[in-house]
């Protein structure tokens, strides 16, 4: 369907940034809704007004009775439903594109700052600020954005809005027309002289398509609710895991607890010593505590053996070794 | 009506727009063009055939339809979309002209340092600064004017945004005041309100974009004046430093232990 092309292209882009359930939902949307709308729209509902006949010769009676029976045609109602239900997904896509661009610009800025001489304190401050901002945007190995942080919030909000809109439209359709198409409609509206019988065109075929679209709508709603539960479970399990690790991991220096936890942590540059202790983790500490811990570690190391390197360490504060290397930690 | 061509033109402008501009283009194509093509054209498809008047007088129905619907809603919306999209072409033309000039200077050998080859010039993202800022801002301004004008024309032609289910018509050759009935008035009202709401949203996006561009300009100007204010102090520092350096180089024996601040 060429007319839906633009929307289809946009929704295709969202596919890669969705969960598995989200991808199924998008496929259901495309195949069972757009295609069926295209198939049924013209052929089944095409002659709905021309073949709507009323048992009267009164001019205008057929028009007003049709208008009363069908304030909005089923086909147009489904088009609006489809559009409104896709809109939260488009808002999420906007957020994804915004974050991708921001990540690209920050990476470029980081590259430029690293090319400058490192001893300038202002450059170091700006570099730290850029790295802080980049830490908020989580990127996977293949360059795609991970659904974390603010992006997760937008994703959950979009799924919630989709569910509400879907349920709202299904309820609206039930209130307007019910789930079947009656073959006869009794109409009493001026200028009809009395209660006239009006006959709908193809009521059975229309009933079949109405029930089909109802089932697709319910499946879509079900998938949205399933996705909400899946995201909730994922959040809860991550919280439990994070809480357990923060509780167990030692807060200070020198221990070899698992450095590859999901939470952010910083490297302390130890020079070129192969036998330097494994990088300590500082989970759950504030930045001040972390700085004191770093300083204490350095003093301890400086006192335990002579400094192996000629130049004093250029940075006292913890920093990411390189953006691509640190991104590998977020596995 | 082939909207694909318009999509191609406007898609090209998309690369040089602000974020709000990109949202505006998406709203235009999804909420207006798509709804126009997929839904609205079918609702208005049979508007003249199913326009029925309570008379047998030949010609009465025709003159009444013509009186109440001088321009069909569909055609008016299509015109509105074309007029509203056209200022974006000004921006596209300006960017094309800028690229053409840059390519000409590149061929003459002037901008060899900035670009590697002609492909690089084509791929470069043009920033909204200088004369392009003026073109872009005026295009947004015209967009707002066209949107408002069309909304007013709509309101004026059809006496509001609601379509009545019966119209009274007494124009020649109708013998008396006849009742005429529009086809699908409720559905048409729903879509009219939808399209008007989309126009309002587009207009608000344009106003927001205009404010954003003006704020960006003021911010850039204030940064420039601040830099100019800092610069005289630096040059003073530099001139003092130069004097001191001269002193050092002239009298090698007499070393100065501290520099003046």
UniProtKB/TrEMBL annotation, chain A:
The keyword Magnesium does not apply. Belongs to the connexin family. Alpha-type (group II) subfamily. PROSITE patterns: CONNEXINS_1, CONNEXINS_2. Keywords: Cell junction, Cell membrane, Gap junction, Membrane, Transmembrane, Transmembrane helix. Residues 312-331 have a biased composition (Low complexity). The chain crosses the membrane at residues 20-40, 78-99, 154-174, 208-232. It comes from the Eukaryota. This is Gap junction protein. One of its GO terms (molecular function) is gap junction channel activity. It is found in: Cell junction, Gap junction; Cell membrane. One of its GO terms (biological process) is cell-cell signaling. It is a multi-pass membrane protein. One gap junction consists of a cluster of closely packed pairs of transmembrane channels, the connexons, through which materials of low MW diffuse from one cell to a neighboring cell. Signal peptide: none annotated. It comes from Jaculus jaculus. Gene3D superfamilies: Gap junction channel protein cysteine-rich domain (1.20.1440.80). Residues 43-76 form the Connexin N-terminal domain. Residues 165-231 form the Connexin cysteine-rich domain. A connexon is composed of a hexamer of connexins.
UniProtKB/TrEMBL annotation, chain B:
One gap junction consists of a cluster of closely packed pairs of transmembrane channels, the connexons, through which materials of low MW diffuse from one cell to a neighboring cell. GO terms for biological process: cell-cell signaling; ear morphogenesis; gap junction assembly; gap junction-mediated intercellular transport; sensory perception of sound. The chain crosses the membrane at residues 23-41, 77-98, 132-158, 191-215. Keywords: Cell junction, Cell membrane, Gap junction, Membrane, Transmembrane, Transmembrane helix. It comes from Jaculus jaculus. Belongs to the connexin family. A connexon is composed of a hexamer of connexins. SMART domains: CNX, Connexin_CCC. Residues 146-213 form the Connexin cysteine-rich domain. PROSITE patterns: CONNEXINS_1, CONNEXINS_2. Residues 229-261 are annotated as: Disordered. Residues 42-75 form the Connexin N-terminal domain. Residues 244-261 have a biased composition (Polar residues). One of its GO terms (molecular function) is gap junction channel activity involved in cell communication by electrical coupling. This is Gap junction protein.
């Amino acid at each position: 369907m060429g007319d839906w092309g633009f929307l289809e292209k946009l929704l295709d882009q969202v596919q890669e940034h969705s969960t598995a359930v989200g991808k199924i939902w998008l496929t259901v949307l495309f195949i069972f809704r757009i295609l069926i709308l295209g198939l049924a729209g013209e052929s089944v509902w095409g002659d709905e007004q021309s073949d709507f006949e009323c048992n009267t010769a009164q001019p205008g009676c057929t028009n007003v009775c049709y208008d009363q029976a069908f304030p909005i045609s089923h086909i147009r109602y489904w088009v609006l439903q489809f559009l409104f239900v896709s809109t939260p997904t488009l808002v999420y896509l906007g957020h994804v594109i915004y974050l991708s661009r921001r990540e690209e610009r920050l990476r470029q800025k980081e590259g430029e700052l690293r090319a400058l001489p490192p001893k300038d304190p202002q450059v170091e401050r700006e570099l730290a600020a850029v790295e802080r901002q980049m830490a908020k945007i989580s990127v996977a190995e293949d360059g795609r954005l991970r659904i974390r942080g603010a992006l997760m919030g937008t994703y959950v909000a979009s799924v919630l809005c989709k569910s509400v809109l879907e349920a709202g439209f299904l309820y609206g359709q039930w209130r307007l027309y019910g789930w079947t198409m009656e073959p006869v409609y009794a109409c009493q509206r001026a200028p009809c002289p009395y209660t006239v019988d009006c006959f709908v065109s193809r009521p059975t075929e229309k009933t079949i398509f109405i029930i089909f679209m109802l089932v697709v709508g319910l499946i879509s709603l079900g998938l949205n609710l399933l996705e909400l539960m899946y995201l909730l479970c994922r959040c809860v399990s991550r919280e439990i895991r994070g809480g357990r690790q923060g509780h167990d991991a030692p807060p200070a220096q020198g221990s070899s607890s698992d450095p590859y936890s999901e939470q952010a942590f910083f490297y302390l540059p130890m020079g070129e010593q192969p036998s330097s202790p494994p990088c300590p983790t500082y989970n759950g500490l504030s930045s001040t505590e972390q700085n004191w811990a770093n300083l204490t570690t350095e003093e301890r190391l400086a006192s335990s053996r002579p400094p192996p390197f000629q130049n004093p360490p250029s940075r006292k504060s913890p920093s990411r070794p390189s953006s691509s290397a640190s991104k590998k930690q977020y596995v | 009506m082939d909207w694909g061509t318009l999509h191609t033109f406007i898609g090209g402008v998309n690369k040089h727009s602000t974020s709000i501009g990109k949202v505006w283009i998406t709203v235009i194509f999804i909420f207006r063009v798509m709804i126009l093509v997929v839904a609205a054209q079918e609702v208005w498809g049979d508007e003249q055939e199913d326009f029925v008047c309570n008379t047998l007088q030949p010609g009465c129905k025709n003159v009444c339809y013509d009186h109440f619907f001088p321009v069909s809603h569909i055609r008016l919306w299509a015109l509105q979309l074309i007029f509203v999209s056209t200022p974006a072409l000004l921006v596209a033309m300006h960017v094309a002209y800028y690229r053409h000039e840059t390519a000409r200077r590149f061929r003459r050998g002037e901008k060899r340092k900035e670009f590697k080859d002609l492909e690089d010039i084509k791929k470069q993202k043009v920033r909204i600064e200088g004369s392009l800022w003026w073109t872009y801002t005026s295009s947004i301004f015209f967009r707002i004017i066209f949107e408002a004008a069309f909304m007013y024309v709509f309101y004026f032609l059809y006496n509001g945004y609601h379509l009545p289910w019966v119209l009274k018509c007494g124009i020649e050759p109708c013998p008396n005041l006849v009742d005429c009935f529009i086809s699908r008035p409720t559905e048409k009202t729903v879509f009219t309100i939808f399209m008007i709401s989309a126009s309002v949203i587009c207009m608000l996006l344009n106003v927001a974009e205009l404010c954003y561009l003006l704020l960006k300009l003021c911010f850039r100007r204030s940064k420039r004046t601040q830099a100019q204010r800092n610069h005289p102090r630096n040059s003073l520092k530099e001139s003092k430093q130069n004097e001191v350096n001269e002193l050092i180089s002239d009298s090698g024996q007499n070393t100065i232990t501290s520099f003046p601040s």
